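Quick one: structure for this chain?
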Amino acid sequence: MLYLLPTPIGNLEDVSARVLRLLAEVKAVYCEDTRRTRMLLSRHGISAALIHYDDRNPRSVESALERLRRGEDVALVSDSGTPVLSDPGLKLVAGARREGLPVCSVPGPSAVAAAAAGSGLPADSFVFLGFLPRAPGRQRRMLEAAAALGKTIVVYESPHRALALLDAAGEALGLGAQTAACRELSKVHEEWLTGSLSDVRAALAARPEILGEFVFVFHPESAHRGAHGESDPMA
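Got it. Here's what it folds into:
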């Protein structure tokens, strides 16, 4: 069995008892970074065989598939969140499905779900675009296509490209589009900026330095309130 095991997106307490049990039981854990995964396992007193996994390396994919063919239980984890969702794992899961090998996707932490739920924007149906291409033109075209559906849009971005993404979003959606900037989700310095796209951009641009990983949530309809920050209730 291939187990897809979600790991915390920040707060190490955000891991289920089922995930911890499976990490201790499987024959091997394939992971993006063995050091990151070892920190999580050590915190919970788990010893496991950790193997670096690289979706771009056919030998890495074949190594895991061969274990599955032998009937072994193995796990796949990413550095944070759910494997395959803007993280490695697609080639392994697709290969297992083609060969009829069993796959179990265990529910758990996901930055896109946390951001959509906490944004205050419609989340009954949304478009997840992950990390957009770096070219502004391609970003704008993807955002325009998503906006044409009239749905909420969720995007991941790094801190040093956050303003450029907001510029592309402004061109595609309009500066009045409803926006939530979710920074450092589940971590000590978690922060939310909400309001119009122009207000959120202005708030970020006024900072001497932009830090932390972002999830941006947009809705093409105009905002009716200004941007504001909210401190982390866990801090």
